[in-house]
Amino acid sequence: xxxxxxxxxxxxxxxxxxxxxxxxxxxxxxxxxxxxxxxxxxxxxxxxxxxxxxxxxxxxxxxxxxxxxxxxxxxxxxxxxxxxxxxxxxxxxxxxxxxxxxxxxxxxxxxxxxxxxxxxxxxxxxxxxxxxxxxxxxxxxxxxxxxxxxxxxx
Length: 154
Hints:
Helix content: 10-25%
Number of domains: 2
Order of helices and strands: HHEEEEEEE
Strand content: 25-35%
Largest sheet: 4 strands, antiparallel
Number of helices: 2
Strand order of the largest sheet: 1-2-7-6
CATH class of the largest domain: Mainly Beta
CATH topology of the largest domain: Immunoglobulin-like
C-alpha cells in the first residue's frame, strides 16, 4: 500500500487541518472494513440526508444513536434471552455492533425512527447566516479620501 506524507500540506496551509486529517484518516484505515450491518446513505433534499441501517432482530431498546465530536455513533447490543432456545439454523445475525459516521461541519441529526427492521436517521445541513453568501450594495457616488499633509519626524 502507498503511504502519503501530508507534512508539506500542513506547512503551507492555514485552516485546512480538518481536510488533511480527514484524508489522513481515510488513507490509514484498514482495508477490511466491517460490512455488518449493511446501510444506505441517501440525499433526500438539497441539504438533507438519511442513513438507513438494517437492524433486523433488534428492538428500539437495543439500539443507541448518539453524536459525539462531529461523529454519529450507532451501536446495538442484544440483551441476553432468559430462556435457552435451540436453533436448527441461525441466519439472522444479532451480534453487537458499532458503526461510526463522520459528520461535516453544520450537519446535525434531526431525528431517528425504527420500523420494519430498519433504523432511519435524518440529517440536516444548517449553514449559519454568517457563512451564507450575501450581496454587497455598491453606492453610486464616488468619494475622495481626505489628504493629510506629511510632516517630518525627527
